[in-house]
Amino acid sequence: MGTRLKVLSVFKALHRTRMTVFKDDNRALTAARLKINEEFKKNKHETSDENIQKMIKMGSDVDIVLRETVMQMEHIGEDRLVLRPRESHLLENVPYCKDDPESSCVSESESDV
User: Fold this and answer.
1) Containing domain of residue 80, as a range?
2) How far apart are CA 43 and CA 21, in angstroms?
3) How many domains does the chain have?
């Protein structure tokens, strides 16, 4: 894929990720859009292929970080927040309970399998 197409692909991916990560948060959506556009415009006239590849890598890394680590929270009261994890944050996990053999947790011998 040509460099121009890679840059455009990262640009579009960041905007798609922005729409998912900051869903229903107009202030964050606007701030993210402005920042993405600003960074791409700032480097629009870069000609060094090495620097362009580094920036493409940086953009891809930022996309991954946004998708995997940013979670939305919403104020529902003066002292309460609701966490809105996306499906990408939900992991299959079995609790480990060493001291309670009656529970449905995985025992030490089962966890070594």
Assistant:
1) 3-85
2) 25
3) 1
